[in-house]
């Protein structure tokens, strides 16, 4: 009996080297877009986690005040969306800056007599540190502009926002807010650019597709 025959009987099974089989080729694939349900839906301002470390972590939410004449949303945008949030002297506001964590979201709020409104959203990209004469500094990056600015008066007229710290401590420049308040303000403003809400874009695509046939 040949050696190959003995190997097939069983006792010598495994003594022959395994021959590497060619790996089947892989092909790129395109994820199919899920159909969107029609009908009324609420605006969601919750961003998707950007990395695994952020998954499962609950964001904190804040409101940062700035005088448009000193630093406006336009200044933020023209600076590559980045800035060092410094110059905060109030001890309570400094405490809030120290409590900020990476990827926390903040409303960018224009203060002053001429414009008191939420105009955009920024994200914390560097937690607090000291820089020269500035005791507490955090770095923030622009995420997107509000689709519609939310005025202070509009927020005060909303019954769900009664007792907001922004109203009770008008001179506080760094204000912590709850997830519930965040969602309400976002809904008032129709969300913000970069919030992951692509409903408007999908509708436009459907109109273009349907409008292609006369």
Task: Report on this structure.
With 214 residues, the chain is α+β, with helices and mostly antiparallel strands. Helix content is 25%, strand content 25%. The chain has seven helices and six strands; from the N terminus they run H-E-H-E-H-E-E-E-H-H-E-H-H. The chain has helices spanning 3-9, 73-78, 91-99, 152-156, 165-168, 179-188, 199-210, and strands at 61-66, 82-85, 105-110, 117-131, 134-151, 174-177. Strands 2-5-4-3-1-6 form a six-stranded mixed beta sheet. The longest helix has 12 residues, at 199-210. The protein is globular and about 40 Å long. The relative contact order is 0.17.
Shape: globular
- N-to-C series of helices and strands: HEHEHEEEHHEHH
Mean pLDDT: 79
The side-by-side strand order for the widest beta sheet comes to: 2-5-4-3-1-6
Q: What Rg, in angstroms, do the CA atoms define?
A: 27 Å
| Largest sheet geometry | 6 strands, mixed
- Annotation, overall tally of beta strands: 6
Task: Calculate the terminal CA-CA distance, rounded to whole Å.
Answer: 79 Å
The parts where pLDDT drops under 50 for at least 5 residues are: 2-9, 12-19, 24-44, 51-56, 200-214
The portion of residues forming beta strands comes to: 15-25%
Structural class: alpha+beta
Number of helices: 7
Indicate the percent of residues in helices.
10-25%
């Amino acid at each position: 009996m040949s050696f190959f025959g003995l190997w097939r009987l069983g006792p010598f099974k495994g003594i022959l080297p395994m021959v590497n089989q060619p790996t089947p080729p892989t092909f790129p694939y395109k994820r199919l877009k899920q159909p969107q349900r029609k009908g009324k839906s609420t605006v969601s301002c919750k961003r998707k986690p950007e990395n695994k470390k952020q998954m499962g972590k609950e964001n904190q939410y804040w409101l940062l005040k700035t005088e448009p004449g000193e630093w406006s949303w336009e200044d933020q945008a023209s600076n590559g969306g980045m800035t060092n949030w410094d110059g905060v002297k109030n001890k309570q506001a400094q405490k809030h800056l120290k409590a900020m964590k990476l990827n926390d979201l903040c409303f960018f709020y224009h203060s002053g007599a001429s414009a008191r409104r939420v105009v955009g959203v920024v994200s914390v990209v560097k937690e607090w540190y000291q820089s020269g004469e500035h005791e507490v500094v955090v770095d923030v990056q622009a995420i997107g502009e509000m689709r519609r600015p939310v005025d202070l008066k509009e927020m005060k007229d909303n019954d769900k926002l009664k007792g907001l710290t922004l109203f009770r401590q008008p001179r506080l420049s760094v204000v912590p807010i709850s997830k519930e308040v965040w969602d309400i303000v976002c809904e008032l403003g129709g969300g913000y650019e970069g919030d992951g809400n692509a409903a408007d874009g999908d509708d436009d695509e459907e109109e273009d597709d349907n409008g292609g046939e006369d």
